[in-house]
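Board notes (copied after class):
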Amino acid sequence: MMELLPRPTSYREGGPGAELSDGMVISADSASSGVADLLASELRAATGWQVNIAGPGADSANGLIRLEVRGNLGDLGPGTGDRAADGPAFPDPGAEKYRLTVTEAGVEIVAPTPAGVFYGTRTLRQLLPADLFRSAPSTARTAVAVEGVEISDAPRFGWRGIGLDLSRHFFPKDFVLKLVDLASLHKLNVLHLHLTDDQGWRAQIDGYPRLTEVGAWRRESPAGHYTEGRKDGTPHGGFFTKADLAEIVAYAARRFVTVLPEIDMPGHMQAAIASYPELGNTGEQLEVLTNWGISEHVLNLEENAVRFCTDVLEEIMEVFPGRYVHIGGDECPTTEWESSPRARQLCERLGLAGPQELQGWFTARMSEVISAKGRRLVGWNEIVDADAPPGSVILCWEGKNAWRAAVEAARAGLEVVMAPEPWCYFDWAYSDDPREPLAIRSAISVEQVYSLEPVPDDLEKDLAHRVIGAQCQLWSEYVATPQHAEYMYFPRACALAEVAWSGRDRSWEDFERRLSAHLARLGALGVNYRPLDGPNPGQARTWATP
């Protein structure tokens, strides 16, 4: 098999292949026109050729790529794993299947939807030389040969995600757009943006301007590992305007990536309370948190705070049109509620047994807000213990508890996305090697990521379809630059992409072989990936003497 990643469902070498050259044609039906435009721009940039776009039935002596949305490709199953054909999904994996054929007549990609056609073009790009991933020609080429092949492919899971924490360190828009490109190349289709936390608020909200005037900036940050107790004395911050966010959403949509916004509540809210002290439980004027970790300052959950959250979510849903909205719900201390007479009075009015039940009540309120707009709530696995509302999607992260929560959620009729720490938290170091850059802990190797099986062993087979995907997370306490983020993501995100796309029948040895070749593509794209044998001297924390 060619060094394709993620591994396709079916690959068969064919007869003579095709040749593409200057003046080639991409023939596309109306449903595939957007994909054709994107592919043409990529090929023009990499080759310097004239790449023409024509309607169905076109031909060319300089090479032809035919794109077509056609039927349902019924002979290709709904996915490559154990999902039920009629099970809930995001999106339906059957909508993302495609067939790619290369013969002397040219390249043909057919799929039941434009998304499937798009994923076929991502595979086609990997059939071309690695230097054609560059933004301008690195060498003069008169033609490119594409080997004869027949590929039939479909994803195992509909939700294939990659998460980025923008709160602990803010990343520029250009990097987020690059991350979209890299995600879509690997057939990942969800970009989860963690937009708010104790250490910073990163999204413009018109109704509450102090969220970015105050909440987007902190006085300083920890230096070194947080256990050292040192500070860097340097202000940090930034935020995205609504126009920035709309641009990211539109850019991602063209590449069939859904952007999932997260506004973490009712905990992880110190940046918001620093902006509007009346949202807190004490009225104290706080500053945006300058430490890593979890703040005990949480929302008061009275009507003013509920109205604030409602207003914020409604503005967020205006910018992010996707079906899902993430409200966090993780790591919410109840210390302030337990000591607050107002919180106890609220519990009495609501008929709650005590402050420990407030989060479940609040989550149900937010679910109503989100459902009223035709959307669905996403929360971390802690909301399972707080009686997650029907229709919620549970993002399971919390070590061994992630598996328990996944099983409980699936049995309760909820959908589950697996992101368990020891496989999917890419803020952990790759290894225990002291050369590795400073990280919160160690270690998650590429092989460890690849070993993830998202469906829990103790989940009943008839409930397996409720596990709708897998996702990796990059928390940014120790990741301050795009270059460092790329190092932490890649190549581990390549392994996660194959876990989420390909079936259970996977081989680490085969993947490692294909990954070694795939790194040349990442290099051509200018990705600061980690070499498989460890960090290079410019990436390493300590200098190693040859």
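Comment from the instructor: The chain has a mean pLDDT of 95. The longest helix spans residues 303-319.
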